[in-house]
Amino acid sequence: MATRTMRAIRLHEFGAPEVLRYEEAPIPEPGPGEALVRVHAAGINPPDWYAREGMPDVPPELKPAFQLPLIPGTDVSGVVEALGPDTNSFSIGDEVIGLVRFPTALQGSAYAEYVTAPVTDLAHKPTTVDHAHAAGLPMAGLTAWQFLIELGHEHPSPFQEAQHRPMALDSETTVLINGAAGGVGHLALQLAKWKGARVIAVASSAHETFLRELGADEFIDYTKERPEEVARGVDLVLDTVGGPDSRRFLRTITRGGSLYPVYFGEFDDAENAELGITVTATQVRSNGAQLAELSRLLDAGAVRVALNCTFPLADARAAHERAARGHIQGKIVLTVD
Fold it and tell me: Residue 198 — φ and ψ, nearest 5°?
């Protein structure tokens, strides 16, 4: 019997966006507890290009197993096409979204016409948005949720032994979000406002109107002034940029406050303790139940997903090239006919 095929983006080698090939691939079969999803849109996230490059900067002991050819992508919005054995959480024809198998497989094969996913990774798609907007929600939304609202798992960060515990947010809390216009940042801003916090958004001036429309109480243009020199009395900094420069935000935070770098950098535990500041991070993980909560917030109008741009699946290379140029407002998404 002939193998059923689909169109997909595959890697046969690691490297620049040129290694992304649009070609035929076998349609996967759902196993026990899995659904086969007909993909309508797939979100693009930083782990996609880390995987495309072969994760050259990650220590070998922290790299998940890679097997080429590899179909990248983890964020999906689509329709349940078939169900594997012992699967009753969804029905054929249901519209669903998901962060597929992250980070256990690092890439969930979402850049394709079909993908299989554990039903525990899936949630019903928000009814008030199209598939392109819905596909922008899973990884960015779950990252913001697990950093700010509820962790939902007991897995420590691979870069830190301390367990991340989100700070309670309310009207007495001031939150500074660095990189507020990006995928994680613009959703974190809205979640913090949903909890009643006062939010300081840090981005370039091109994004000020956008961020104030999302509810930012104060805006700092990092191209004109250094946020760590002008912001004071902050209870929590969510640094979506992170990395080596993240510790500069320690001076903005009140004693008893917290700094959450999404991309962990180097910190001095003794310095943090002397300042009375908690510095923790986590690694986002697939969670269908949390994604369902986010989906309900979208339908209620409490949160919205902004799209920077969309590309057809066949143009995944161009989408990665656009991502590499940075300065993205919201999300980049691949659409699948």
Answer: -90, 130
pLDDT of residue 3: 77
Among the three residues 251, 279, 307, which one is the final residue of a domain in this structure? Answer: 279
DSSP string, 251-281: GGEEEEEEEEESS-----HHHHHHHT-EE--
Question: Could you tell me whether strands 21-26 and 5-10 are parallel, antiparallel, or unpaired per DSSP bridges?
Answer: antiparallel
CATH number of the domain that 65 lies in? Answer: 3.90.180.10
Predicted structure pTM score: 0.96
pLDDT (tens digit per residue) in 192-218: 999 999 999 999 999 999 999 999 999
**Domain span including residue 291:** 5-139+285-335
Helix, strand, coil: what percent of the chain each, to 5?
30, 25, 45
- Cα–Cα distance for residue pair 174/167, rounded to 1 Å: 11
337 pLDDT band, cuts 50/70/90, is confident
Distance CA 337, CA 335 (A): 7
Q: Are 182 and 305 in contact (CB under 8 A)?
A: no
| Domain match, 213 and 317 both | no
Q: Do both 216 and 299 map to the same domain?
A: no
Q: What are the distances in angstroms from CA 170 to CA 151, 167, 191, 201?
A: 18, 10, 11, 17
Select from 316, 335, 294 the least CA-distant residue to 141. 294
**Residue 210 domain flag:** yes
Q: Does the pLDDT of residue 57 top 90, yes or no?
A: no
